[in-house]
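>> received
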Amino acid sequence: MKAKPTASNLHPHTGKIPLREREQRHGHRGCVVWLTGLSASGKSTIATELERELFRRGCQPFILDGDSVRQGLCSDLDFSERDRHENIRRVGEVARLFSDAGFICISAFISPHRADRDLVRNLMPVGTFIEVFVNAPLSVCEQRDPKGLYAKARKNKIKNFTGISSPYEPPLKPEIELPTNRLTVMQAVEKILKLLEKKCRIKSVPGKPAGKVPGAIRWSDW
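>> returned
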């Protein structure tokens, strides 16, 4: 459910460019690709490569990433349950604005609670919220641990760490599930692209598939 404004004298301004005209110019529908999963499951890696491939196809993509957002928009929030909820609520509203402008907004957030992810879904027109479960086993994520966060969490140096001292609620019916312990980065990206071709009408590019791009990043290249 969308949060109600606390002020009663608000009058939203509507511009003169309808969404359909923006989407015609961009060549695709606006939507939100929401990547959720444990830390080190591969969300940001997929987001970066997906953005590059969409841009190569002439689309208008933009990434919202957890660490980046917490350095600005949500820098006043910690990792308590209340602030985690507020973090996702804010990001969801921003993602909706990007979608309303006809962009493909790629959001990479642990977003551990189903209720928070459902809140964002309910902000969006039907069919424009694409939940992607980046599913890697905890043991694999700990083995990758590019930022050393799991090691610190195991030593109690980080509180409320998802998967260790705080729960993660996996999606029940995501639009896509990506077992990143069995897929390459570009195989994961290709699966998302195929769905976007159907749901958001992005262009299908003939020739070399994304999975064959030279120098494609690996999970170990974090």
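>> The first helix runs from residue 19 to 26.
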